[in-house]
Amino acid sequence: MKRLVVGMIAAAVLVATAHTAMAQVKTVRSEMRTETGVVESIDTAARVVTLKKPDGTYVAVVAGPDITRFAELKVGDKVNARYYENVVIRVKQPGESDVISQAKGTTGSEQTLPGGTKAKQTTITATISAIDLNVPSITFTGPGGLKYTSKVQDLEALSKVKVGDKVDIVWTEAMLVSLERGQ
Q1: d(CA 107, CA 119)
Q2: I want to staple 139 with a disulfide (CB 3.0 to 4.6 A). Which of 12, 27, 33, 149 is the partner?
Q3: CA distance linking residue 53 with residue 38, whole number of Å
């Protein structure tokens, strides 16, 4: 689930639309997916839970210190996780200040069984540093000079931005986790 900031820039590029030089806001990607697994083992000292997914594969998950009800997990419990991701892009007006910020939080469930919500929102300003209409592709330069180039599917959107334009990209992730006791 962890991705580089430049990864979110690529996602935003694929369907971003800027209609005029004025600031425009558009949700360019929104996704909800559900994952389930059964607790196979718990390493209490390392706070690692090994889950068996429905397809038979295993995944190890580290429960950070913000997971306060870790001790209540039991082998055989079914973990349900809903993951939400949303990317919004906004073409900035000339002269607007660059932005780089991140906020995150964890809220525990007040239900009988452990669960909760963990969310993170990152906002960055990136500059369009190259456009290649032959490929077609676009290159962004983000914080720290990181560059990322991606193919573009929406040629109309590509034709409405230019090298030097700045965009704010807001990337939100949230995971809602619930637990069912195993039989």
Answers
A1: 9
A2: 149
A3: 7
Residue 45 domain flag: no
Residue identified by tokens 């200040």 is: 97
Domain extent, residue 21, equals 5-34+80-180
> Could you give the 3-state DSSP secondary structure of residue 7?
helix
Low-confidence ranges of the chain (pLDDT < 70): 1-29, 183
Report d(CA 57, CA 171) in Å as an integer.
29
Residue 45 is given by DSSP the state T
Segment 22-72, tens digit of pLDDT: 356 656 567 889 999 999 999 999 999 999 999 999 999 998 888 888 999
Unique residue bearing structure tokens 């694929």: 14
Total domains in the chain come to 1
Q: How far apart are CA 5 and CA 121, in angstroms?
A: 11
Residue type, 141: T
Token code pair at residue 38? 């059964």
Tell whether 63 is covered by a domain: no
pLDDT at 19: 34
Residue keyed to tokens 């973990």: 79
Q: Is 69 domain-assigned?
A: no
pTM: predicted TM-score of the whole model, two decimal places: 0.64
